[in-house]
Amino acid sequence: MRIRLIISLVVLSTNLIAQTKVTGNVVEYFGKEKIVTTAEGSVLHHFSDGYFLPSEKRTGTLFNGQDPIAWQYAVGKFINPNKQKGDWQSIKIDSAGAFSQKEMRSAFLFTEYNSPKEQIVLLETTGGTRTYINGMPHEGDHYDFGYTLIPFKLHKGINEFIYTKGRFGRVKSKIVIPSKSILFTKRDLTLPDVINGEKDQKWASVRVINATEKNLKNLVISAKLSSGETATYATDAIIPLFVRKVKFKVPAAKNDYTGELKMKIVLSDKSGKVIDEIEVPIQQRSATVHHERTFVSKVDNSVQYYSVAPALGSGPKALILSVHGASVEARNQARAYKQKDWAHIVAATNRRPFGFNWEDWGRIDALEVLAEGKKIFNTIPAQTYLTGHSMGGHGTWFLGTTYPDKFAAIAPCASYPDISTYGFDKGDEMHDKFKAFESIKRSANSGRVKSIVKNLKQSGVYILHGDADSTVPISQVREMREILSTFHPNFCYYEYPGGQHWYGDHSVDWFPIFEFFKRQTIPTNKEVKEIDFHTATPAVSSTDYWIKLQQQIRPFDFSNINAKIDNQLITIKTENVAILELDLVSLELKGEISININDQTVKAASDKKAILALKDAKWSLINEINTSEKYADRQGGFKFAFNNNVVFVYATGGSASEREWYLNKARFDAETFYYRGNGSIDVISDKEFSLEKYKDRNVVIYGNASNNKAWNLLLKNSPIQIDNQQVKVGDKVLKGDDLAAYFVLPRKDSKTAMVGVVAGTSEAGMKATWANNYISGITGFPDVMIFKADLLLKGLPEMKVSGFFDNDWSTKTLEFLN
Q1: What does UniProt give as the signal peptide span (predicted)?
Q2: For 79, which DSSP code?
Q3: What tens digit of pLDDT does each residue of 118-152 get?
């Protein structure tokens, strides 16, 4: 059940607030009045009473784009309940200061504040999934992290706030006057450990609040350790009214030490004028004990961390990647393991304790940490392993089946295989009756572990599960045991007697797992004589030893390549494969090779790669991949636009409402990527964008051909064109002022980069793009989704076009609906 809550507020005395002295998280008294302050400023107002409205509307897992409040804002039908109460019911905060009741888990909470003047303030919220401020969407705090600080301008008079879905059944909210217009916040630092004997500077990140209406550029951050060392870095730009987590460098220590240091972080402008400074603790440790390291992600140039349980002793070691469960930090995951004498254990973060369920950007984080661990510790390549617990158990199944040639063995603990069929919401049965849902389901196929489980044929598997687990039912892995028993020659299965979901560190640090790992190695390509490779898309998984899928016939449908080597003959059977590549060189065969593919024979030289392409039902060798078409390094799927050091480009043309909306939408997406993925994305105006300056980077455009100047640079010849009156798809035209679109296309000036589009026609259309469920694990987004604003209320019946571009990025395979 969903509930909409509406709260009316009382204005605090602005004269009293003006007397507040900001000293941190304290309460100060002036006369008889109590003034509450936070580290970022003084509290102007706590929201305390209001109204709520029940609702029965369900959402779904792969598709959850419905929101009646968003629809009301989009079509201009929202009415402040203080003016028209209707079915709204009164509610007040509880003794803990929260709007708290079980219905809040699926609620909307509306708050109202009557401001005596216009001023820039911060909204601090805990517990809500998203927040609307005067109709503009912002990220909330649905995991109760306590990170949310949203700079915004209070209007003189009534200001409206809506918080959606209190995940834990409670929402708290207050307005804060910032102590400075530009300042640090200590909330949510990403810091490495200072490592004894390592002379390189380490990456770190800190959030800067820009409570101004100006872009902040040419900022410099210096960090000074209490031991005296200093590092300086010219950091990232920050758009107006935004809190960005920006990079800086931590200096290396000259002398060995174990314990806590103090680090002073100073923010300056390019002239050296100090804007703000803070002091924070940082740990200095030996590289021989558990510690934290950082790196810069290729997704968005943000700083991410991982934790290490380093191997004991010197010499070449194995590498074990460990992936944590929901709400667990990587540092706690690593410390659940005692150090081994034969292997380094590295724990990735999934970008957040909840993150992306190890799919989407969580998957990329795991791969980036795996690469960092191999590089830093110079591990033995053939001795690489994977394990994880709970959500990380799912991550182990998912990563292990998706990347079968990267791990010698995997060990899922307290695990479930497919997240879309696990949990209280079994997916999207309510959507299955609509044709538009078919492409949404397909675009999420990469997470269907049971459909690609045969990829594990070359890898060892050890399954550990408590037989009394009340969180993840034992039935989840008993099913996997039965599936593996039909084909797998090398797996172990153990149910821990009486074990609940967590029964101590041996829930993951289980001695038999590591003994099993020791007996497994990744074979070389030439040792692999048979491959049975399954994948949903080469955008996620393209390679299994010496085979690489470059192009599918039907995007995001499952593909299968079964290949066997018998002397100089390679026999291949394929399903849903248009182009594949064979690394014949790595097989160390001699002379000419016969390749029998689907009962057709071609000849290939053994001293180079063989690229086989299907055209008009005939297979033949081609010399190279046509990178203007879909291929492994650039596929569709709208979510894949949010990768490759992506930059958001918002429109500055059009009406005042268009300019305000598209800037805020880009800001909202950046806020969400920060909150859910510890991200830090460059957000710029269309006036700042140039092809050369942002060369080979993914771009997401906010706006259409009528108002975004970057459109003509990137999408002049796009098969989809959008202006304020219509959407043109190939030779078909959809007219209306309430059409919205998400789609992705290749950058014509790059072999790898992509362009994503978030756009609408006129005001209703552009506001229909409000939801950013594409920045979420699991959800399904095909190449193209074009819909009417009424989709926010009625769901998939209002989807007008969906599906996937053809391999040449044409529109002929898109689905035109009703």
Answers
A1: 1-20
A2: -
A3: 999 999 999 888 999 999 999 999 898 999 999 99
